[in-house]
Amino acid sequence: MSVIFRLLPKISVAVAAVISMFFQVNIAFSAPQLSPLEITADHEVIYCTTGPVPITDKVKQALNEGTPVIFSWEIIIDEVNDYWIDDAIGSITVVRQAVPDLISKSWLLTDTSSGISQRVYSVEEVIQFLSRLQNFPTLDRSLLTSGTLYSFRIKLHIHEGELSDSWWSEATRFGKTVALEEVALP
User: Looking at CB atoms within 10 Å, which of 43, 150, 178, 185 has the fewest?
Assistant: First the structure.
């Protein structure tokens, strides 16, 4: 029994070393590939452009099989602080959906932020619409201070099928960060 107690520290160090090697390798190979994010501003509005984000084969298959697909883009703006937690400025959610029409073999694309809909007849057009934000008006410039560093983070939530407004679907909606940029406005 005393041999086990003498070897216990060495065994625990060896186990910790093996576990840390596993997580280091796992982190190195699972680093997310972020999409480019461009922040532009005029005198009144700040705009975001990002994408296209990579679309998985599962989402492409769902689109081809006639399943509705919803991309919920969440743009989170924080003021970057050096010695404290970043201050939240706000977040904007943009929902884009593709609803198939199996009879006409087309998709109705809807941007819920603008309410504009269009009908397209190819999957490539659907993917282009869902996977990009192009000059999206994000924030009133008067809410930000010139010369201050701000972090713009975009999380993407992809949902296949009909979206329900239940509390558990909202609680389990984690999303994936697809773009990140820090900007100081002139």
Answer: 43
Q: What is the DSSP letter of 178?
A: E
And the tokens for 60? 């492409």
Q: Does residue 59 sit in helix, strand or coil?
A: helix
Token pair belonging to 14: 């060896």
Q: Which residues of 8-35 are buried (b: 16+ CB within 10 A; e: fewer)?
A: eeeeeeeeeeeeeeeeeeeeeeeeeeeb
Vertex 146: Cα angle to 81 and 85 (nearest 5): 10
- Please say whether the beta carbons of 79 and 89 come within 8 A: yes
Structural tokens at position 63: 């689109």
Q: What is the pLDDT of residues 18-51, one digit of tens each?
A: 566 555 544 444 445 788 899 998 889 999 999 8
**What is the separation, in whole angstroms, between the first and last Cα of the chain?**
70
Provide the sign of the torsion angle of the four alpha carbons 60, 61, 66, 68, taken in this order.
negative
What predicted TM-score, i.e. pTM, was given to this entire model?
A: 0.74
Q: Is 46 helix (H, G, I), strand (E, B) or coil?
A: strand
